[in-house]
Amino acid sequence: MPSALLPRYPVPSLNVPLVGGGRFALGANPGERFDLIVFYRGLHCPICAKYLLELERLAPEFNTRGVQVVAVSSDDETRGQEMSDKVKASGIRFGYGLSLRSAQQWGLYISASRGKTSIGIEEPALFSEPGVFLVRPDGTLYYGAVQTMPFARPQFQDLIGAIDFAIAKDYPARGEYTGAV
């Protein structure tokens, strides 16, 4: 069962190889305001491809707000490269090789393969479901959303508006209370 991350508290480590070389190590070179980490299911997921196309389209908008963007999956390098090519990535970096243990530490749900998807690509034996996180440069969680399904994900245009509001109003991360209720 995934564990919930708490806003204003440190997130788990994340260190994955990047398509095209190098590594993404969360916190090593953070975005000015946030790192936007988009965990996606993998190459087999047509909804992920559409979602990541929108992220690529809006990458300059995030960049102008001091947000660096990375998309990460548990796919291997070949499949990570294929997804990067499919979305014609230039504004977002693609990380691959996310361990399922790390996925669970981030609170992501894990699914088992059901064979080939509607686009004829075999699902991995196990893979993580989607998650979207904004992490502050100090390594603490600002925003997080995880799903059990590939459907109805947070919209990136809405997230840009939320970032604008958060910056303008110095709005704190919410959901940090852990006391008795």
Account of the 3D structure:
The chain is an alpha/beta fold. The chain has one domain: Glutaredoxin (3-Layer(aba) Sandwich), CATH 3.40.30. Helices cover 27% and strands 21% of the residues. It is built from four helices and nine strands; from the N terminus they run βββαβαβαββββα. It has a five-stranded mixed β-sheet. It has a two-stranded antiparallel ribbon with strand order 1-2. Strands 6-7 form a two-stranded antiparallel ribbon. β8 and β9 (141-146) form a beta hairpin. The model has no long low-confidence stretch (mean pLDDT 95).
CATH class: Alpha Beta
> Rough shape?
globular
According to DSSP, the number of beta strands is 9
Instruction: Describe the sheet with the most strands.
Output: 5 strands, mixed
Percent range of helical residues:
25-40%
As for the number of domains, it is: 1
Discrete helix count: 4
Strand arrangement, major sheet: 5-4-3-8-9
CATH topology: Glutaredoxin
- Beta-strand proportion: 15-25%
**Secondary structure category:** alpha/beta
CATH architecture descriptor: 3-Layer(aba) Sandwich
CATH homologous superfamily label: Glutaredoxin
Topology (elements, then pairings):
Layout: E1 15-17, E2 23-25, E3 34-39, H1 46-64, E4 67-72, H2 77-86, E5 93-95, H3 100-105, E6 110-112, E7 126-128, E8 131-135, E9 141-146, H4 156-169
